[in-house]
Amino acid sequence: MHSFFASQMDFIFFFYGLAFILLGAICFSIARILSHAGPWRALGLFGVLHGALEWLDLAALIIGDHPWFAAGRIALMTASFVCLLEFARLQALRIGWRVPGRGVYLLLILGVALAGFFAGSKAAGAAGRYFLGFPGSIAAALVFLQHAKVLSGRVRTAAFIAAAGFALYGVATGLVTPALSYGPAAYLNNDRFAQLTGVPIQLVRGLLACCISFSIWVIWGYRAAADVSSEKFALYLRRQFGWTLAAVAAILVCGWTLTEYLGAVYRANVQAQAQGEIDLLGSRLAAETAMVDGMVKALAGSPSVVKLATGSAPAETEARSVLNLQVDASGARSGYILNPEGGVIAASDGAPPLGARESATPLRDALAGRASFSFDFDPATLETRYLASRPVRDGRRVVAVAVLMKSLEGFERDIQRLDRPYFFVNPDGVVAMTNRPADLRRTLWPISDERRRALEQAFGPLIARPLLKQEVADDSWTSVDGARDYVRRSPTPHGGWSLVILKPTREIFASRLLGIAITLLATLMALIYILGRQRAVRDEVEMDKRLRLQKLADDLGLQAATDPLTGLHNRLHLEQTFAEEMARARRDDTPLSLVVFDIDRFKSVNDVYGHPVGDRALVRIAALTRQFVRSTDFPARWGGEEFLILLPGADSSAAARIAEALRAAIAEAEFDGVGALTCSFGVAQFSEDQSASAFLARADAALYRAKLNGRNRAEMAPAEPGALGAGRSVASGLV
Asked: What range(s) does the GGDEF domain occupy (predicted)?
């Protein structure tokens, strides 16, 4: 299972990043409809940054990594975790918890930077997860858990799921880090997790990100349904959630199938190419050694050599001539005739002395009546040689040994011209020839210290760090320096030496990238359609609701009292109520205040964006107004973009606080299609001897003064003698 998932890391990184991009999109959508959008923007930014980080990890997997690229990804990861912490901090402040200020981020980031400076990028990545990722995820989990306690129904369940998802993600991303040789990361790391479970931690993180994204989507859906107050829209959202899950799952499965197919096609090509290359190299090496094998056989059977070995005739000149002829014919560097004691009877012209190490194996095998074929490495010249020997017989008796030694420098030159990594290794995996000079005398797989010391007698000092984690077999897949390679290993007929080809499979990931790109496009198209359809259904529901309200107003006579667009009281109803409330204030000696406000530069909104957008802005402001008034207050649309609020029992100070709170809420709100809007407010308190028109004129004058003073502000009309209900406001604690 581990090898299967290792071949799927590209799609896992894509899936992981997509889950967080989806989280970011959902959170930004939530931020658009909330007045307190800051926390959700921070969480959305976390999702987008972390999703981009995983896709950059995918890019590193395909095109290769670089220290600067790795450092950039660590910086991006750190920034994303800071956004997660900021989300939790802002939400905790809204709950009322005591939390540190933003200055703590500098200390945490400094810790990450120091870890990177003194211990490298891997240590910085681990520090970022320990210092920021883990506490940020756990803090987010606690925030969602607190919200779940005050919610009910499916929203409560979704909040609990989000809390559990963040808590588990904190463990998966904040405690399970890339492997280090020290600290917790030496014991709890990505590699150890994959070994224990067979599953890469990135897949677990991606699944948790999906869980978090969809649970927050449920919360957002119920909030949207509550804003619309339509059972039809709520039912549609529930069905849409199921459709979305099914559609995204189907697209991912089909995309993975396509990606796997494209990868399999290229993988088959890689395997076929590697087979052809290893066969070609094997035949080239066989050609080098076969000629030597044939010539040493002819040399051992030469009568001149037998005569020289037995001393039956003075044949030294003739034997040396035959020896030189066989050396030249086979392309060998030197040839020797050895007596049974290992002494040299004859040597080819220019042959260097034959050392005891070179002669030991041929002599031992020949005395046993066997031919000997072996490879040998010269640590002085870094040259690999081929030795072939046969016993020289006089009847059934071995009287001498014929030896030919050939340098494989021609074969080595051929290897060095190749692009792929090639190795010629002894049975222990020590590299004797390669086209990667830095790996010469390096072990391909781990060996014991005792065996290493023995091999250094023949090869000289060996490079300590093995290239692979374990000995490889032919036609297998392995990990080389963090990258996945295809291995072909072809043994030679002699001495257990073998040819090894490493076929980097980065091109396989590049071919699979086409399937990933198609999957991404299909997912985006599906989500755009689903969200667009949701918007259309919402508009349809709102339009239907507006039409039904209009019809109801017509049927029940509500049109005389209600503004059909905003649902607030209309001007006619307000004028009737004015007289009633003024009479009540005089009779009971209670305060009465008036708030007048309108939208700043509203004409430009209609001119630039159109009247439908302007109408939606009026409806949104009316909805915000309802949130800040009591059941006894009287909010009304006076006309166009102008609104009035009549506040029985509220003096001018209480009315001013309500006006200021409403002004701030409108300024912070996001208006669909427009962005931000502001309003200017005028506040006046009723005096006993005032008429309705004079009362309204004072509030209008204060509104005009707010406009002159820069807009987006609330101004209070000067107090006049005869103000009713002094000190008896019942609205002083509203905001």
From this structure: 590-719
